[in-house]
Amino acid sequence: MTFENTREFARQLDANDELRNYRNEFIFPQHEGKNVIYFTGNSLGLQPKRTKKYIDEVMDDWANLAVEGHFYADKPWWDYQERFAEPLSRIVGAKPSEVTVMNTLTVNLHLLMVSFYQPTKTRYKIICEEKAFPSDQYMFQSQVAFHGYKKEETIIEIKRREGEHNIRLEDILAKINEVGDELALVLIGGVNYYTGQVFDMKTITEAGHKVGAKVGFDLAHAAGNIKLDLHDWNVDFAAWCSYKYMNSGPGNASGCFVHEKHHHANLPRFAGWWGHNKERRFKMEPDFDPVHGADGWQISNLPVLSLAPYLASVEMFAEVGMDKLIAKRDKITSYLEFILREIDVEIPGTEFEIITPANPKERACQLSVFLHGQGRSLFDYLMTNGVITDWREPNVIRLAPVPLYCSFEDMYEFGQILKKGIVRP
Ligand SMILES: *Cc1c(COP(=O)(O)O)cnc(C)c1O
């Protein structure tokens, strides 16, 4: 498709956009009486209008039923998470029994590492990506220290090649083979938070399994953003937060995936009463008998007020379906890329280097742009002119044109604002 950097063209794309009405399902912060241009749905998604109803429902049940709400609310609290199994499993390409919602992301990754990182004298190493999200790095360091290993000898980072911004698949596979028998676990982000690079999870999982390692993914930037087939890819485990692309609100519940093949295995885990045999949970028995399925990793009774907004969101995603979202995602991301390139050419002395892979198979809804020749003042200018984006050292802004609520006209408008803010040499 050939694009044009005009308002008329952008409006035409919006008029033909099947998802255009979903924009009205969200609440936008206002700037001078207009919706902001929101590029940080990869950090905190906007609030869907329907969310309040889901929370009010719990508040009303609590007011009217108090403790009885556990069993007699319209959506009883004691098994509230079961409402996610069907729609959420479709979003991540899993069987309903393979997903659950609980806790928050880093907590869940720790809990899953308890089950899937079982180091031995000879097999104890972990492969992760260089410059992984800091929380993941702290997690790896504390996990290996907990097991009595030194991080320098245990955590192996896959590096970018000199002068490159992205990690090559061939380098990941080579490292997996090199570490071989010593490799206990591969755990990387499905989509890199900084560059937006999408990893080939199927191939990485195969390679990890071939050398006898377990393979898991941190899907913080992948859930609700890319097509996932966790079951078919044979991934051992995964977890994601729900407040980025999935719009569940700040710090709300995380989703987990545990492959079916592990449900009956007697994996070590940290247990609590909510993972215990559902029929017998309230018999208060002394011995733990885990639920078969991802729900068997539950620990505490459910944070229903944190789950309610996530349920609102999961139902919206199920309604739209990932295929439509992905089709719009690719189009709007390409349109944004086109506009950035136009401005780059139009204004001498600028260089916007898009460090996100150009190959559509290796990227999703994010362009990370290195602003050569521009400084933090450009970012500050955008923020005070109704464009919400984020700044990462040394000189990168991340732009996520989220398909559920960003419009093509937003991309055009952004280009116009950006042009005015560029410092010309
Ligand atoms: C956002 C993000 C997190 C956040 O972790 P929380 O436990 O939800 O605070 C972790 N890992 C990655 C890769 C992220 O992008």
TrEMBL record:
Residues 79-246 form the Aminotransferase class V domain. Keywords: Hydrolase, Pyridine nucleotide biosynthesis, Pyridoxal phosphate. Belongs to the kynureninase family. Its cofactor is pyridoxal 5'-phosphate. The gene is kynU. Pyridoxal 5'-phosphate binds at residues 105-106, 133-136, 218, 221, 243, 273, 301. Catalyzes the cleavage of L-kynurenine (L-Kyn) and L-3-hydroxykynurenine (L-3OHKyn) into anthranilic acid (AA) and 3-hydroxyanthranilic acid (3-OHAA), respectively. This is Kynureninase. One of its GO terms (cellular component) is cytoplasm. SUPFAM superfamilies: PLP-dependent transferases. Signal peptide: none annotated. The modification N6-(pyridoxal phosphate)lysine is found at residue 244. Homodimer. GO terms for molecular function: kynureninase activity; pyridoxal phosphate binding. The keyword Transcription regulation does not apply. GO terms for biological process: anthranilate metabolic process; L-kynurenine catabolic process; L-tryptophan catabolic process to kynurenine; NAD+ biosynthetic process; quinolinate biosynthetic process. Pathway: Cofactor biosynthesis; NAD(+) biosynthesis; quinolinate from L-kynurenine: step 2/3; Amino-acid degradation; L-kynurenine degradation; L-alanine and anthranilate from L-kynurenine: step 1/1. Its EC number is 3.7.1.3.
